[in-house]
Design goal:
The complex is a heterodimer of chains A (about 350) and B (about 300). Helix content of chain A is about 45%, strand content about 20%. Chain A is built from 16 helices and nine strands. In chain A, strands 1, 2, 3, 4, 5, 6, 7, 8 and 9 form a nine-stranded mixed sheet that branches. In chain A, strand 1, helix 2 and strand 2 form a beta-alpha-beta unit. Chain A is globular, with a radius of gyration of 22 Å. Chain B is mainly alpha-helical and about 300 residues long. Chain B has two domains: about 50 residues; about 220 residues, Orthogonal Bundle (MetI-like fold). The mean pLDDT of chain B is about 90. Classes of the chains: A alpha/beta (about 350), B mainly alpha (about 300). At the A-B interface, helix 3, helix 4, strand 6 and helix 16 of A face helix 3 and helix 11 of B.
Chain lengths: ~350, ~300
């Protein structure tokens, strides 16, 4: 009898151990204050609620995923990524297709999830200006950003093509809804690049990172720049004389994907379903000024009206912006990047 | 007859000794050679191989064809060599007189000078690069001091362009030039200069015909080291160049991010390697490169 109990206990323990071992995911993100925000708002609460053990890592982007997939040694179950690079990696066969029967995206913004990547947070590419140079009446459109007579001063602009061409076309008079139609040809891309070439004598710096454009504004090195809204909020908090507007900004998102052949694919899918729920997403703005991808997160009462007014994905702000088109990036980014670099090296 | 016999016997013995010694030397060198094989030859071979693999995994020349298609690549190589050559020249212009000055100083002062030359060497490259950014930017220390001293009225652009890149790179590269030059200067027998003036040479003539030629091995070694290290620079031009000074290493990174394809980046590495070898070969036609590898005199 005793033996029997002992045996069944052991069996139960083995079963528990086996279950516990199954329920585990390894998540890789970008580190820094960004991953800290994700960890506090999404990963840790989800770990507590589901019992799925979370192991966090940092990584260097989709080139790391490619290396893992190609060598067949995939260790990552979930990776945080920019929407564009995830879309291209998906097209290259590096990512698992996401199962939207498991992940509920019914209350998501329609553009903020894709076949391979489900949105985690929303950010905007905006124009920001130095309030010492222009006061509160800074540029109100991309046309103003290009207008060096009305707004004399030095500019900074992105050193990569992502998010660089759309503003140029809007400055050239293309309506936001037509931007990707015009860009859908080499002539259209050339038109955008020519517009940037026109502004180039006034562009002192082509920035390469969010930290850099925030620093440029904080130090007063340039009077105006493009950049990611959250960084400017942080710069302003640190005493930087900087403001930005969501008008004509580019609405973009970071997302979560599952590498092809991930060791815990099914658990990862369920985990993504969990952290996509509004009750997790509504905590994110407490740690970083990036908005939720799930519209329902605005209805839980966690996000106050005051906080919402500053978030890129609040309905009011989202309406002023142009959502970036992943299809365009899959089709054109490599070609456009080469053309863009040609302009940069002139 | 007997003498010839013994000398032959010695010869055979010496040959045997020589062979044994070479074997021993080979044994001593083999760990280093093994490391070079594993960490240099094999990766470079792999680099060469993947540069011929296209995006679809098949043999392809697309990674090289891309370089011909876009003018950006051509300009990036030009910039890379331009920056490297200018940095090398500036290092020579600044470093050679400094090394000469130090070589004339009494040992104690010379040591002190040497420490000040080497001190930045012990600080992280990234830290030094950002320090230059802080100093040189529009509202940086240099502009502020110069304006308050009345040197110029408006802040001038010293950074986020080629100037800033060169300032940062020369500062980082200077010790690589000064050390070998100083070494070759210290090795020169002072009596040579006395003999030259004894034979009627003016100080200027003595310097150019006696002193300078004796320092060339150190100068070439230093210049070569600076030049080759410059070709692969990444951090300094990326931070101080304002995104407009694009060197090959930066393009390699952007190609990996953009194409997620090792081949696209490897091809750039291969072309840079081939061009560097070509330049060294041309240089060796004009300069006696062997004198560097043989260690001087």
């Amino acid at each position: 009898m005793k033996l029997k109990i002992a045996l069944s206990l052991t069996a139960a323990m083995i079963a528990i151990a086996a279950v516990a071992q199954e329920k585990q995911v390894t998540i890789a993100s970008w580190g820094g204050s960004y991953q800290e925000a994700q960890s506090k708002a999404l990963f840790e609460p989800a770990e507590a609620n589901t019992g799925v053990k979370v192991k966090q890592e940092t990584y260097g982007g989709m080139s790391d995923v490619k290396l893992q997939v190609e060598t067949g040694a995939v260790t990552l179950d979930i990776v945080a990524s920019g929407s564009g690079s995830a879309a291209r990696a998906g097209a290259d066969g590096l990512l698992e297709e996401l199962d939207y029967n498991v992940i509920d995206v019914s209350t998501f913004y329609p553009n903020l999830y894709s076949k391979y990547c489900v949105g985690g947070d929303v950010f905007s590419t905006v124009y920001a200006w130095n309030t010492e140079t222009y006061g509160d009446n800074g540029p109100q459109s991309w046309a103003d950003f290009w207008d060096v007579e009305k707004f004399p001063g030095k500019r900074a602009y992105r050193g990569k093509v992502a998010g660089a061409l759309e503003p140029a076309l809007m400055a050239d008079g293309v309506a936001p809804e037509d931007v990707y139609k015009v860009l859908d040809s080499e002539e259209g891309i050339k038109r955008a690049i020519d517009k940037i070439r026109e502004l180039k004598p006034h562009i002192d710096v082509f920035w390469s990172s969010g930290a850099q454009h925030a620093q440029l504004m904080k130090d007063g090195e340039v009077d105006m720049t493009t950049g990611w809204n959250g960084r400017f909020d942080n710069a302003a908090k640190d005493g930087g004389k900087v403001k930005y507007s969501f008008n004509q900004a580019l609405l973009d998102y970071d997302c979560f994907a599952i590498p092809k052949g991930a060791p815990n694919k099914d658990v990862a899918m369920q985990f993504l379903a969990e952290i996509s729920k509004p009750e997790y997403q509504d905590d994110l703005p407490k740690y970083i000024t990036y908005g939720p991808t799930n519209k329902a997160a605005y209805d839980t009462g966690e996000i106050t009206a005051e906080v919402a007014a500053g978030l890129p994905s609040s309905p009011e702000n989202a309406a002023k912006q142009l959502p970036i088109s992943l299809d365009w990036y899959i089709k054109w980014e490599a070609k456009a990047a080469e053309m863009y670099q040609e302009m940069l090296t002139e | 007859m007997a003498a010839v016999e013994t000398s032959r016997m010695n010869e055979a013995g010496l040959r045997k000794d020589g062979a044994l010694e070479r074997l021993k030397l080979f044994g001593l060198a083999s760990p280093a050679m093994l490391i070079i094989l594993v960490v240099l030859a094999i990766p470079v071979g792999w680099l060469f191989y993947v540069s011929f693999v296209g995006a679809d995994g098949q043999f392809s020349l697309e990674n090289y064809a891309r370089m011909l298609d876009s003018k950006a690549y051509y300009r990036i190589f030009i910039t890379t060599f331009q920056v490297s050559i200018l940095t090398t020249l500036l290092c020579i212009l600044i470093g050679y007189p400094l090394a000469y000055f130090m070589a004339q100083l009494p040992p104690k002062l010379a040591n002190l000078c040497m420490i000040t030359v080497l001190l930045p060497f012990w600080t992280s490259l990234l830290v030094r690069t950002y320090a230059w950014l802080v100093l040189l930017q529009k509202r940086g220390l240099v502009n502020e001091w110069a304006i308050s001293a009345g040197l110029w009225d408006e802040p001038i652009k010293i950074v986020h362009n080629m100037n800033g890149t060169l300032i940062g790179m020369v500062h980082i590269m200077l010790p690589f030039l000064i050390l070998p030059v100083y070494g070759s200067m210290k090795a020169i027998d002072r009596d040579f200069m006395k003999a030259a003036s004894n034979l009627g040479a003016t100080p200027k003539r003595a310097f150019w015909t006696v002193f300078f030629p004796l320092t060339t091995p150190g100068l070439f070694a230093g210049a070569l080291m600076v030049f080759i290290l410059c070709l692969g620079f990444y951090v300094t031009p990326a931070v101080l160049g304002g995104g407009k000074v694009i060197m090959v290493s930066m393009k390699i990174v952007s190609n990996i991010e953009l194409f997620v394809n090792w081949g696209a980046a490897s091809a750039l590495g291969v072309v840079l390697l081939v061009m560097t070898f070509a330049i060294l070969w041309v240089a060796s036609r004009f300069l006696k490169l062997e004198s560097i590898t043989a260690g001087g005199h």
